[in-house]
Write a structure and sequence with these properties.
With 445 residues, the protein is an all-alpha fold. The protein has one domain: Hydantoin permease. The chain has 18 helices and no strands. Helix 4 runs antiparallel to helix 5. It is globular. GO terms for molecular function: symporter activity. InterPro entries: Na/ntran_symport (IPR000175), SNS_sf (IPR037272), YocR/YhdH-like (IPR047218). It is found in: Membrane. Keywords: Membrane, Symport, Transmembrane, Transmembrane helix, Transport.
Length: 445
């Protein structure tokens, strides 16, 4: 007996959940250090251009596939594309699964840092001591796995509640809290002594610092910050009603995701300049540099605690959407119950996460292509699987569906996609070109 497909309980719920899917560590952790490494304002403008010109088009495309088929990624491509195309959906499910196996490790670090900030572990420490605290923590064979396990339980618990009662309900609470914390932290950061220099660096473009790497980094960040090419948007789109105005709501999701990234930059870069530190500290900016910055602020332990709570929320909403990709496939195509699919997947990814976590410490010498297990999994998904998935989605909607996709957006009188011809042109030509750049640059780097 077939089970009726779940749907979002409200339009607001869909927007909050989808924005939560897009908003993740890439927005709050990666975007600020990418901007810091690539010249600030110039990178910001190029990034915004990439979001508008091809990021939004791909979000609409991926949501549309899910809504048209009302199925998981594999089932959606089987229904709409026929023979051969389900492999694209299978790659999305596999990508989400692999990302989760290392995402829960990094997300566990955010939970640990909530505790560290609550205990004022970084009070009075300098950048060298902060770095030692971080490297000692991730090298521990037990501690990071404990926090990864806690994070996994939280993630599975949300997904077990289902679409409306679990994911949607949690998103309606977590996303507003995330925005409140971001706004409070941004106001505090820009009012710090010396923060004006950081604001200028972030908002005033210096085009002399722009290189080919800046363009490639901006395209890559726009693509990855929107959770494209991993089946998350497609899966969430499958829970939409056909009457829902998809172009309008997709635009709101992209807007909220971009706003989070912009606010995160206003939190981190002015604070870093205020403390007299380098904005180009790279990936270590969050876990090594920022704790030292907070330690120098009046009431810095409170703002540091708020920041890592914010980071954990972003990680959770994004991880929930990744888990739902796998769960949706197992429920639809394999006939598992939601409990068996969610709990079973959680257990398996945690087992896989064990060697990934240990590769940061006692197994650090065991590498693949010169990278730790975590770095290798990140490279394969971020630089290969996600871009390829996004490329195939663009080509599928642009060429395989073509005008049929435009007609599907007009299934209700209220739905309208201005410049539909331009949308198809972007999917057929511009988006594939940008994604190809990501692939080529990733391999050269």
């Amino acid at each position: 007996m077939s089970v009726a497909r779940e749907h979002w309980g409200s339009r607001l719920g869909f927007i909050m959940a989808s924005a939560g899917s897009a908003v993740g560590l890439g927005n709050v952790w990666k975007f600020p250090y990418m901007a810091g490494e690539n010249g600030g304002g110039a990178f910001l403008i190029i990034y915004l251009g990439c979001v508008v010109f091809f990021g939004l088009s791909l979000v609409i495309a991926e949501l549309l596939i899910g809504r048209m088929a009302q199925s998981n990624p594999v089932g959606a491509f089987r229904t709409l594309g026929g023979r051969g195309w389900p492999a694209v959906g299978a790659m999305g499910v596999l990508t989400a699964f692999i990302i989760l196996s290392f995402y829960i490790v990094v997300a566990g670090w955010t939970l640990a840092y909530i505790l560290f900030m609550g205990e004022n572990t970084f009070g009075g420490v300098d950048i060298e001591q902060s770095t030692k605290i971080f490297t000692s923590f991730i090298a521990s064979p037990v501690q990071p796995l404990v926090y990864a396990a806690i994070f996994t339980v939280l993630m599975v618990g949300v997904v077990l509640g289902g679409v409306a009662s679990g994911i949607e309900r949690a998103s309606k609470w977590l996303m507003p809290l995330l925005f409140v914390l971001l706004i409070v932290l941004a106001i505090r950061a820009v009012t710090l002594p010396g923060a004006g220099e950081g604001v200028d660096f972030y908002l005033m473009p210096d085009w002399s610092r722009v290189t080919a790497s800046t363009w490639g980094g901006a395209i890559s960040q726009a693509f990855f910050s929107l959770s494209l090419g991993m089946g998350a948007m497609l899966t969430y789109g499958s829970y939409m009603s056909r009457e829902q105005n998809l172009p309008r709501d997709a635009s709101l999701v992209v807007g909220l995701d971009t706003l989070v990234a912009l606010l995160a930059g206003l939190v981190i870069l002015p604070a870093v300049f205020s403390a007299g530190m380098e904005p180009s500290a790279g990936a270590g900016l969050t876990f090594m540099t920022l704790p030292t910055v907070f330690a120098q602020m009046p009431a810095g332990e409170i703002f540091g605690l708020a920041f890592f709570i914010l980071l954990a929320i972003a990680a959770l909403t994004s991880a929930v959407s990744l888990l739902e990709v796998v769960v949706s496939y197992l429920v639809d195509d394999k006939g598992l119950s939601r409990f068996a699919a969610a709990a079973g997947t959680g257990i398996v990814i945690f087992i896989i996460a064990i060697p990934i976590s240990l590769s940061q410490g006692i197994w650090k010498e065991n590498t693949i292509a010169g990278m730790t297990f975590l770095d290798f999994a990140d490279f394969v998904t971020a630089h290969v699987m996600m871009p390829v998935g996004g490329l195939l989605i663009a080509l599928f909607v642009g060429w395989r569906l073509g005008p049929r996709a435009v007609e599907a957006l007009k299934s209700h009188p209220e739905q309208h996609l201005p410049l539909a011809g331009l949308w198809l042109f972007v999917l057929r030509f511009l988006a594939p070109a940008g994604i190809a750049w990501i692939l080529v640059q990733g391999f050269f780097e």
